[in-house]
Amino acid sequence: MASSSSSHQGEILKFAPLQSLVDAGFWRRFSSLKLDTLRIDQSPINITGFYAPCSNTEISNHLTLLSESLSPEPSEQSPEVEFRRGNRNRCPVPGILYNTNTLESFRALDKKNLLTMEAKKIFEDICSGKVEEDSAVLSRFLLISFADLKKWSFRYWFAFPALVLDPPATILDLKPASNMLNVEEAESLAAACNEWRNSSLTTGMPFFLVTISSSSHATIRPLKDWKVCQGNDQKLLFGFYDPCHRPKNPGWPLRNFFAFICLRWKLEKIRFLCYREKHGLADMESSLIGEALISLPQEWRDPQCIPKAVGWETNIEGKLSSRIISLAESMDPERLAVSAADLNLKLMRWRQLPSLNLDALSSVKCLLLGAGTLGCQVARMLMAWGVRKITLLDSGRVAMSNPVRQSLYTFQDSLSGGSLKAHAAVKNLKGIFPAVEAEGIDLSIPMPGHPVPAQEVDRVLEDCKSLQKLITAHDVIFLLTDTRESRWFPTLLCANENKIAITAALGFDSYLVMRHGAGPINSTLNNNDHSSITVNEAAQMGTLSTKDADGSCRLGCYFCSDVVAPIDSTSNRSLDQQCTVTRPGLAPIASALAVELLVGILHHPNRINAPGEIANSIIGSSEQPLGILPHQIRGSISQFSQLTLLGYSSSSCTACSSAVVSEYRSRGMEFILQAINHPTYLEDLTGLTELMKSASTFQLDWDDGTDEDADF
Amino acid sequence: MLELHHVAPIVHKTVVIKYHKLTMGSHKAWDGTLSSDDFYIAAKALCERWKEINSSLPQWTWIPSKREEGYLSLENVYHLDPNVDTTGEQGFSVEEEQEEQEEPADCATLVRCSHKDTHVYNFHIVYSFSYRVPVLYFRGYRCDGQPLDMHGGIKEDLDYSPSLLEEPKWTFMTQEEHPFLHCPWYMLHPCGTSEWMKLFLGPNQQDFVIFKYLASWLSVAGQAVGLRIPLNLHTEDVKKYASSINDGEVE
Question: Where is the catalytic site (chain A) (predicted)?
């Protein structure tokens, strides 16, 4: 810049290189062309670039590739023909694209040779007179690329071959056109240029001849009218659409124009017009008129010569290197699916729930125990709420009867003995939403009342440990199995680790959805209430609590209102007992409620310690944007009714009482095995045996369970 | 553009009358929406108004499409940042090792000594048939064509209206398929448009609402995406169009 900041006579004329811009639409179109038509064919294809005179005082016009740059049929030659007439802002320039199939072959391309080949074409077009018919071939360009269609990234490199004049052209003068012409000349030239640019016959001709008569009248003619322009006293200017914005430098196309003029017309002193625009009209302030001296290189006298050429484009940092463009954001269908799914949630936040915490939802890790009617539906609801991390645990296989009720499975999954549910569910979740981070675990949950044979002990203990690790690794555990006893161990583990646990259970025409309260030990400590008592100390001191941090009672777990320990559910005691025959509408209802409950918990400041709320008859009385956060929801389809209930933790609970949790802490798996093999052990431990003796007539099922719910 | 210029003045009067019959005749309060015919008229009015105030920005152009639909387009709005260094911004490493090459020294090539990072923005105004309001679509890209996304570039370019961005109510941006170009563009979601347009223009100014509509709308929506709208875009037009409407009613 500094060396050319003034146009002193005799200085070497410096040309501003053309810059490329590839519209994302070009790569999009090329990708489908590559996938559908070209496939592994690496033959070069003809493309068309577009440019226009500069129309901004600060920014040069770029040579642009658009989706239209690729012809509809790659086999057709000369795609530029169809753009000949038309858009004044898209002057077509022929180019050639070498796309390679690998990065290695991209790097291995002989760039010097490719550039020379294109330069040679330009040289030949000059010598043959083709340029006079179609001047755009002077700006012929070359593009090499490697399209990584898996990553939606495109490595590419442009070359704008310029024949090198040796010795180089020197400046005699270079000034704004308005300084070089008188007012009449400038006005006449501007009018002639505007006419040229607005005619569909001429607007696609980027090189032209300008004559200005002695009466200041300017005329523009195509190159083929060269003979008409000679003689007389008129001024002759060689004009071109200049993409460059710089006040002291002409743009790149002038280089080959010079080469053409000295080769074809043997001139050595050339007056040229760098044509530029403003607001779509000729601008004589930014357009330049200059005078330069050129001389024909000796070797060019031989028509077979290989002309010296330069023109590889620098990258965005100004280095001679390839560029990379990444379109994953706008081309990767998975990313698009993600943003589309997010949109609905964001709209909800915008319109209804400004406090909706989408990050909390997308980052929460959910473990679904059971991938049956409930598990499938809960997983779908979680995805709908923007939950992304879902682990499904199930040891079953997809049976022929499953797909109609279990919404993640298809007939195909049930063939050949059936796929493992854990795996089929994950596969189909990803089929629904590829961005879901789903994992399937094939594991059966150890259950009280299902005694373990001696040879199985090791395996069961292994399963216990796996389950424990899984629960530790997740934030929320959904208990969605079809038996009551299979919920016992997970409930205990959740109580022990203070994890959010949500149970959904189905009867024939009734359902229960509930969240478990905090565990007996962690609840005081997780709440930063400045307690100096550690877990172990608390356990030793027997201060395990049925209270929450704020002194209110802990909410109960699924087992808290039972007066029997979980056993093999062939006996006639529990709601789950009929679960294999339920009205089909129940599972979606209960699953949806379970997920809505979770969303409520995640948005409550006290999370797991949030007090249970009861539905109020006064509509809209809740202060929370999401409404109340109940403890239990029980519903009956036969009555089309639904109740919210509240039940506190029981000190005799077989799953979450401090007696059970501290026993598990001190004895670990040994305790678990004992509980599995001897369920009455749990009843003894928690005092339920005593309780039952004292109230032998007391029986509880959920229909009249409301009686004992406080605050109702 | 040229075509627009010729057609617009004629369209004005005839359609004003029609508009009065259609919309004014129904005695309901105006709900802030536009019919698709109204949108077309409003679009032409915006183009003309834009040209009159001689904005330094490029011109709005009506891009016709099949079935007499179309959209408004404003292309090549530049955002220059003189002190941005884009190296590594896009999150992939450029492995240049084997690729840099020597080109023969050429004293006639101007070597760039400073690099300005130029961002280019295109804006389209598309009519939403479901919301019956205009929707602003836009996209930005670096000067080499690399699209800008919300995290890499667009947010920075919008930095002079951060307080507006804080309010998600009407600056809600999302990537959606462009209804005509069928590739993802950013858009301002039209959920709330009719409501704030109703507030903005008020129920008593319905007479000229169709001509003011896009200019008023753009002064809000454009601001959200960093499109600097000339201040005088929607100040003068009421007086101007009042007379033309009166003429129309007399006939």
Answer: 579 (glycyl thioester intermediate)
